[in-house]
Amino acid sequence: xxxxxxxxALFIDPETLERLLEHGQADLSGSHLTLIxxxxxxxxxxxxxxxxxxxxxxxxxxxxxxxxxKTLEEVALLGGDYSxxxxxxxxxxYEVQEGLLALPKRTA
Length: 108
Hints:
- The protein is mostly beta strands.
- It has one domain.
- It has 2 helices and 8 strands, in the order βαββββαβββ.
- The protein has helices spanning about 15-20, 70-80; strands at about 10, 25-30, 30-35, 40-55, 70, 80-85, 85-90, 90-105.
- Strands 1, 2, 3, 4, 5, 6, 7 and 8 form an 8-stranded antiparallel beta sheet that branches.
- The longest helix has 9 residues, at about 15-20.
């Protein structure tokens, strides 16, 4: 029998979050998110995060960020400058999508 593993983190885009809230499958209060399924409840803390899309300046994905998710703090530590849908990192620019990074609270 398989034991379900708890995800380490989950990126949730604004449209998905809105749908979950509308259907009663999530509750968001400050930085606390509860995800509700038919057989489980998952309590998470959240951080604003960015999902990196394509590198758009033509310099290639030198930082290996395409497809990855980084918190705003992580982007700042990398030296990135975030502004409405894009991150500039040195001479590279990336399309990004803002959302929430849901980090499940550990249970004993």
